[in-house]
Amino acid sequence: MPTIRRRRPGRLLVAALGIAIPLVLAGCTSTPSAAPVTTTTTTTTAPPPATTTTVPGPPCTQAAITAGISATPNEGLISVNGFGCSGPWAWAGVTLHPGIDAILVLSASGSSWQIANRATACSQHLVPADIYTAACTTS
Question: Into how many domains does the chain fold?
């Protein structure tokens, strides 16, 4: 007669728990799942630099300053004894007829110098700082 083996329910339960517990615990992990990475790229384009066109002024030479003073009638220029320039402004220490020493302030007018109103140019601080003392505070 054949032998019937009876299964032990304990082994089946242990076997079933051995498979079920790891599957249940697989969903309970302490390591967080990685969230999707989002990358944002911002591109900023700077505006092109402003361009300025500088019109060449008159040369800062004794000859150019003398020509500008001589172009003004009734100045009676004898000599230019000293001068200085800064941008569109210049000063000149001059001797005028009949032997009067003076300081003149000149402004650029295109490619030449012209005598400016010294009182206005100095009191309104139109004369640049680097020549202001020589142009405006000496007599």
Answer: 1
Give residue 128's domain range.
62-136
The Cα–Cα gap between 50 and 11 comes to 87
Measured over the CA atoms of residue 77, residue 78, residue 84 and residue 87, the dihedral's sign is positive
Helix (H) or strand (E) holding 79: strand 77-86
Question: To the nearest 10°, the Cα dihedral for 94, 115, 111, 76?
Answer: -50
Q: Hey, what are 69's tokens?
A: 């003073």
Give domain status of residue 44, yes or no.
no
Contact 136, 90 (CB under 8 A): no
Does residue 48 belong to any structural domain of this protein? Answer: no
* 104 belongs to a structural domain: yes
Instruction: Let me know if residue 87 belongs to a domain.
Output: yes
Reading the chain (139 residues) residue by residue, the pLDDT tens digits are 555 655 555 554 444 445 444 444 445 445 555 556 555 555 555 555 555 455 578 999 999 999 999 998 776 889 999 999 999 999 999 998 888 999 999 999 999 999 999 999 999 999 999 999 999 998 7
Cα angle for residues 122, 123, 124 (degrees, 5° grid): 90
